[in-house]
Design goal:
globular; single chain; 105 residues; 16% helix; 5-stranded mixed beta sheet; disordered N terminus; 5-stranded antiparallel beta sheet; alpha+beta
């Protein structure tokens, strides 16, 4: 029974280690904020371009969030021409502001 418990715990920890929520500060007040994410060469995480619409963060004006499990890169965009560069996902600094990645809002 102990072996099963350890295996199950390891599996849960592995899944949690790959889960990352990234945040984007919408300083330009886009009407919509999307995230397009991928891993490696062509494995999309959030669907085809322009990706998935992000969710506003309660209590944090102008901030949006989305889970990007297993993603290596992300582009934040408005779905109609405005976008960031290709950004490397950083679990230690998941908050993207106009000056780059940060570790808090």
């Amino acid at each position: 029974m102990k072996k099963f418990t350890l295996v199950a715990l390891f599996a849960v920890m592995t899944v949690m280690a790959n889960a990352v929520t990234v945040y984007f500060h919408n300083a330009e007040n886009w009407s919509k904020v999307n995230a397009y994410a991928w891993k490696g060469s062509g494995t999309t995480i959030l669907g085809d371009w322009p990706g998935t619409q992000m969710t506003a963060v309660d209590g944090q004006a102008g901030w949006f969030q989305i889970d990007v499990k297993d993603a290596e890169k992300v582009i934040f965009n408005n779905g109609s021409g405005k976008q960031t560069n290709d950004l490397t996902v950083n679990a230690a600094k998941p908050y993207y502001k106009d000056i780059g990645w940060a570790d808090s809002f």
